[in-house]
Amino acid sequence: MYSEKVMDHFEHPRNVGEITDASGSGTVGNAKCGDIMKMDIKVEDNIITDVKFKTFGCCAAVATSSMATEMIKGKTVDEALALTNKAVAEALDGLPPVKMHCSVLAEEAIHAALEDYHAKHPQG
Questions:
Q1: What is the domain-level CATH number for residue 71?
Q2: Is 33 a catalytic residue?
Q3: At 124, is the pLDDT very low, low, confident or very high (cuts 50, 70, 90)?
Q4: Which of 9, 26, 73, 90 is most exposed, with minimal Cβ within 10 Å?
Q5: With contact defined as beta carbons under 8 Å apart, do 35 and 55 qualify?
């Protein structure tokens, strides 16, 4: 059902935790399935230097959170904003159709953290 990459990111998630002095934080959830994702980003000179997540949810929710953090770390704010849920799912070698909403949640968590960053740093 799940690809090897999904299982690897579920069993060995990258970037789990919180950033206490985060430049931006965002929390999103899906009431239908109960998944909740919180993402913290640290931005220096328009580059995401660190990113952490906490996810309450299924295997796919944890895996998409983990993969999304890996994909935006070291990127510019604009590059991170351009990341799509489809790109996250493809990087994991696909998700079952019933679990695609998890990749949408990962994209929304990134956007929420970036929106918070922009609200705190209007010049950034």
A1: 3.90.1010.10
A2: yes
A3: low
A4: 90
A5: yes
d(CA 104, CA 89): 9
Q: How many helices (H) and strands (E) does the chain have?
A: 5, 3
Q: Which among 51, 63, 72, 102 is annotated as catalytic? A: 102
CA distance 81 to 115: 10
Active-site residue, from 33, 36, 47, 58: 33
Total of domains in the chain? 1
Residue 87 gets the label, from left (phi > 0), alpha (psi -120 to 50) or beta, of alpha
Task: State the pTM of this model.
Answer: 0.94
What is the CB neighbour count within 10 angstroms for residue 99?
22
C-alpha atoms less than 13 angstroms from C-alpha of 17 in its C-beta half-sphere? 9
Question: Is 102 noted as a catalytic residue in this protein?
Answer: yes
